[in-house]
Amino acid sequence: MKKTAIAIGCDHAGYEYKERIIEFLAAKNIKALDKGTDSADSVDYPDFVHPVADAVEAGLADLGIIICGSGNGAAMTANKHQGIRAALCWNVELAELARQHNNANIISIPSRYISVEKAVEMVEAFLQTEFEGGRHARRVGKIPCA
User: Mean pLDDT across the stretch 48-65?
Assistant: First the structure.
């Protein structure tokens, strides 16, 4: 499936990464729906993660990318949305497995623990990998509480 729009948001710790990932997406002719933040000034990650999750849930974006220092707070916030499966990833293999086995629709990147180059590699893998379905579909179907 060709990706046409990706929602992306971050806190101050992820600002540099967000900007670099947006450049990568533009080079691939993928529209970035930039939900902020727009500087390295301290902010609260939920203010930028919720809009990414909203865009993915509403079908305005094919997938989402969220970035904070550890990736944990961003993932926890996104996963409060019923239609979101955000996966905290720190290498390419986890990014691929999150899509293949868990049908993750948002990748959470820990900017303080990986390089920006590794983050771009993970995003590329996440965007290129498709959900395998099959036995995994049954399991993913059991994730929502409602």
Answer: 98
Where are the chain's structural domains? Answer: 5-141
| Topology at the third CATH level for domain 5-141 | Ribose 5-phosphate Isomerase B; Chain: A, (3.40.1400)
Q: How far apart are the first and last CA of the chain?
A: 28
The active-site residue out of 10, 12, 68, 81 is 68
Mean pLDDT confidence for 68-83: 97
Question: Looking at 12, 81, 89, 101, which residue is catalytic?
Answer: 101
**Is 50 designated active site?**
no
Q: Tell me, yes or no, if 145 is annotated catalytic.
A: no
- Separation CA 62–CA 60 (nearest Å): 7
Helix (H) or strand (E) holding 121: helix 116-128
Q: What is the mean pLDDT of residues 45-72?
A: 98
